[in-house]
Target: Nitrite reductase small subunit NirD
Amino acid sequence: MTATKEWTKIMKKSELPQQIGKEVHIKGKSIALFHLSNGEVRAIENRSPHRNGPLAEGIVSGEYVFCPLYDWKISLVTGLVQKPDNGCVEVYEIEVKDDDIYVMV
Model:
C-alpha cells in the first residue's frame, strides 16, 4: 500500500528564526526546517547521507547547510551533496499561507 502525501501545518514563519535549523517530526519523519536570509523556507530530511548527522544543527550559508559532524555542504534546494562528496537527502515541498508553514509529507 502506498502512503498518500498531504500538506501538514508545522508552525508560524514568524516564529522560525532565520539561518537556524529547526527539527520537526511529521508522520514518523525527522525534517530539518530552515528560514533563509532571503525569506524563503526550506525543508529537507534531517539526516546527512554520511553517518546520519543532524542537519537541523548545521550551519546555514545561502541555500546550503553544512553537516555539523562532517562539514558536507548540502543544497537546501535540490538535496544534493556538493562534490567531491556524494549523496543526497529528501527535499520536501513547502507552502507559506498567512504566516503558516505547510510541508508536503
